Amino acid sequence: MRPPRPIPASPWTWPPRPATGAGSASPTSSWRCETSARDLDPYGLVLHGGRWYVTGLDSRRAEIRVFRVDRVRSLQPAADPRATPPPPGYDPAAQLTAALGEVAGRHRVRVLLHTTLEQAARRIPPTAATLVRTAEGVLLETRAERFDTMAGYLAGLGCPLTVHHPAELREALARLSERLASSAASGGRDTGPVRER
Length: 197
Known about the structure:
This protein has about 200 residues and is of the alpha+beta class. About 25% of the residues lie in helices and about 30% in strands. It has four helices and twelve strands; from the N terminus they run ββββββββαβαββαβα. The chain has helices at about 90-100, 115-125, 145-155, 165-185; strands at about 10-15, 25, 30, 35, 40-50, 50-60, 65-70, 75, 105-115, 130-135, 140-145, 160-165. Strands 1, 2, 5, 6, 7 and 8 form a six-stranded antiparallel sheet that branches. A hairpin with a 4-residue loop joins strand 6 (about 50-60) and strand 7. Helix 3 packs across helix 4 (about 165-185). The two termini are about 40 Å apart.
């Protein structure tokens, strides 16, 4: 996983339109460069990483979706001006965080951090992983594309940890530990003066 750049705070959410507002048909281009038309009842706008995202009910798929605003090519009012209200307690920023996590990598990762939730939250932005306090520590759940990159990221957190899943991540951490130990051992020997080339 390539951790996202830290942001000053959680994604900022603009208050959503009232539920009585009209829906809209939005031809969009996906990250796979596929173009499609959507009937969307917008629930909120979220600013994250310098980009705007709109969340809302995609009536064609009957599910709440997230779209990047800069990929919306055009807008037009829906034929039916009535909009479906969001679920009680709906949080657009949380929806975006979950959506970004789904495309962050192919592999699901579950790691127990032996630290406090407060300490973990200082080092791990909310868009990088889900953190849950447990009796043993903090359960970190995220996704990763490369195990070696994730191993380096976890090592940089500076706290003891236990990998619950997957086994490939444990192996990547073991290899990283061996490389670090080898580097530390070779660095302790006097190899003589460095010759300029």
